[in-house]
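Q: I have two molecules that I believe assemble together. Could you output structure tokens for the complex as a whole instead of separate predictions?
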Amino acid sequence: MTTTTDALAPTTTPAALARPTRPAGRPVGLTWPRVLRSELIKLLSLRSTRWALAVMVVATVGMGAIYALAVEAEDYAVDSPAHPARMVSRLAQYIVQFVALVIGALGAASEYGSGAIRSSLCAVPRRRTLLVCQTAASASLLAGGAAVAMASGQALISGLLAVRGIPVQVGWGDLRLLLGMVFYSVVIGLVAFFLTVATRSAVGGVSLALGLTFLAPIMLALAAVVGLDWCLEVSAFLPEHVAGQTWSTSYDPSYGGVLGGYAMGCGWIAIGLIVVGGLFHERDA
Amino acid sequence: MIELNGLTKRYGDKLAVSDLTVDIRPGLVTGFLGPNGAGKSTTMRLILGLDKPTAGRATIDGRRLVDCPAPLTEVGALLDAKGVPGGRSGRDHLLALAASQGIGRRRVDQVLELCGLGDAARQAFKTYSLGMGQRLGIAAALLGDPKALILDEPVNGLDPEGVLWVRGLVRHLAHEGRTVFLSSHLMSEMAQTADHLIVIGQGRLLADKPVEQLLSQASETATRVSSPQIADIIRVLGQLPGVNVTIESSDSLVLHGLAPLPIGQTAAAYGWVLSELTPIISSLEDAYLGLTEGAVDYRSTALV
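A: Yes, here they are, computed for all two components at once.
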């Protein structure tokens, strides 16, 4: 940083303190769309968020490309769930989950880690409005990033397979898988966001989210093995199970099928908003 | 006007702010003084709604900040010069704040220029010095052209030119009729900037007075006198009831309990030659230390 004092010389003149410029005809003030736009600017202006989104897209597309080039050119049935063109969501599962989780945590951690939450609350003192808009902004970014990653991956894998002479037929079923993966990314990212807001710590939020996503299913399965059968029932409601219902090629109809998966995901978001919203509203910033 | 009415904040067993009732009036620069841990920053956070009061109320023009439809036009605040994510540019930080209330980009660039950050606006915040962070915080506070400003240690980290600029800026803003409430540990700076002072210690109000009144109340009557006839002065004036003498040198002394006028009149009557006759006025630091003597939480140990 080589900026000199002279370069920083301020210009204190009454004219410089003129009234704020504002869109013609629109009074200055808080509105939901404005706060949402403000939160999107915050998220997109973070280098770490941009890097994480880039990693999500590049890794998904890259893995798809490698798989499409490496898979054996057999005579696959075009409508089979095991067709290579249907592998993009399975291949991207872990990287998209992990990056979504990081992006969700980053959105909250950037506010609490730096103390920027105090500036945010001075501008938007209505805490529930702020939290809902932060949640919506994170969800938009996660959905956008995952959609670009999955669509690019699907397009590339289908193109490469076709070039290699493997017949490909992409239909509505494939769209369901992609939408499910996008939805799951949003759910897992928002779970990390809520946990980071609750703990006010990126490390705390990411650790808890990782535990809930990757560790809890294993622990509950082990508990079921030693006779605690109810753990399997609990496990069915974990965010990880949302994935199985919304983007898997085979899903469990006993939990409402695909719609049940979406309902569970929406339930996690609603519970997060209510619990963390209550905490955020009551505590000191 | 910022009104604090019975404002109280307790953290567990610790009473951070205790039944604080003051009005911070527009058109004045109101300084906020107190030892470390006295509750200054807590009070500012309570006004801004960042912390919830245990009891009492803080309002800005009769409303809590949370009830204001356009908060940035009501009050601008600088609480923490480092409160921006390192990877975000100063301009993006202000653009995000401005977007929340529909304030235009032109205003963002305007306040950045005003605060001397025009050239550094697009740099990542982690490259900013403490002084640049303060300037960005002040720019954020001015963003909505607010009626009131709350500035916590605004000159901390600024170079002398920056200190002078902040002094001119807050005086100008107060002159425009805005409410300016600022804290600082620099007594000399506060003495030159503030019109009115609020002093707290251990969360309690110790003083709420104009600067001149605080200084005059803290000052004892004392006069420095220099003269070749020092022995005559001690013999005549030093014997008066209520007068104490501190000899500083062979031709200079301080007469405690006497103002310059009676000394001058006596000198004229006796024909003494006086080379100095100076009233001794307490500094703001003296007044502050006198007020907060019994209300310090963290006391240092002298090394010598």
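A: One point stands out. Chain B touches chain A through 71 residues (CB under 8 Å).
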